[in-house]
Amino acid sequence: MPSFEEAYDNYTKSGQGQTTAQMYDAQRDANLANMEAEYNRSRSQAQADAEKIAGNYRQQFNDLGAQYERQRRNYNQAAAANGINTGAASQAQLAQNAAYQRAYGQLGTAQAQEEANAARGLSNLESAYRSQVNAAIANADYNKANALLQGYQDDRNRQMQEAQMMAGYGIFDGYNNLYGADTANTMRELWIAQNPLLAYNTGSIDAERYRAMTGSYPPGYQAPASGGGYYGGSSRRRTGETEGSTLADQLSALASSGLKVAGSAASQAANQYSPFVNAIATGVQNAWNDAQRNGTPAANGQAAPAANPTTSGNALSPYSNWYANVMRLTNR
To answer: Whole domain around residue 194: which residue ranges?
Structure first.
């Protein structure tokens, strides 16, 4: 009997289970592909914006330097025109230069901050994408596993219903597939014990076992006679069976038709059954020889058969034609 893990694994790799798994895998892959495409678009835009930062600040640095040069030149010209001494002019230039350096440093700090923010934005974008991917995979796997488990349980319930229905007719193959041979055989024997007549009618047991279980033969079954037939036996035909319905009668009819296994128009098709026919002929010959040696039971009041099976009046003469025909049928 397969374990749950083995049965579940087999379900997911074949039939409806495999179809369900493939469907959920396709949905997951499509969702992941859309997420990746969106992430790539967002990352490309963020990278483009980050690359513009240096160019934007370069222009600002150039504008700041040009402004400083204009201010310095204008001041020098004004100082010369107004007769400002060298010491005063030098102090003014130092103040202008300090203001320029502060502005330049602040501009550099702003650029570095903006570039750091851009890099952090890219990192956060990638982290968010990875988290979404992991969440999507986990969610897809959960949905797939849930669907597969539900499908497996539904399939299992269907198999159990079918097994239960067929078991009502003595067929326990379904339980054998579900629980293994030992359990199925135990259930079969229990069913036979509870339903001997149905078991007999469905061919699960024979008349002798039915009798052993119930103390009598099944309804409609003709019990064996105490004498007659070969060695006091009986044909044991059921009520309604007539001559010609047993295997022996059918063989006799076939033999009487004159069909030969070999050397006839049907020889090509019949030759494949020659081992079976030879086995029948050998069995018939052995039985006949045995009957000739031992005779029939004295309780039947019959004399021992003559050596010639076709001699009229001996105990085996009713079967002589059948014997001769079977021998002819097998080319003996």
So the answer is: 168-221
Q: Helix or strand or coil: residue 156? A: helix
Whether 251 is covered by a domain: the verdict is: yes
User: Is residue 238 in a domain?
Assistant: no
Residue 52 maps to a domain = yes
pTM: 0.45
150 and 117 share a domain?
yes
User: Are 148 and 296 part of one and the same domain?
Assistant: no
In a domain, 236, yes or no: no
Print pLDDT tens along the chain (332 aa).
Answer: 667 777 777 877 778 888 888 888 999 899 999 999 998 999 999 889 888 888 888 888 888 888 878 877 777 777 667 766 666 666 777 777 888 888 888 888 998 998 899 999 889 988 998 999 999 999 988 898 888 888 888 888 998 999 999 988 889 999 898 888 999 999 999 999 999 999 999 889 999 999 999 999 999 888 776 544 333 333 444 444 444 444 444 444 444 444 443 344 344 444 444 555 555 666 666 665 666 565 544 334 444 444 444 444 444 445 555 555 555 555 55
The candidate with the shortest Cα–Cα distance to 314, out of 324, 305, 322, is: 305
Q: 179 with 267, same domain?
A: no
The string of DSSP codes covering 85-144 is -HHHHHHHHHHHHHHHHHHHHHHHHHHHHHHHHHHHHHHHHHHHHHHHHHHHHHHHHHHH
Task: Say how many domains are in the chain.
Answer: 3
- From the list 248, 315, 256, the residue with the least C-alpha distance to 284 is 248
Q: Are residues 253 and 310 in the same domain?
A: yes
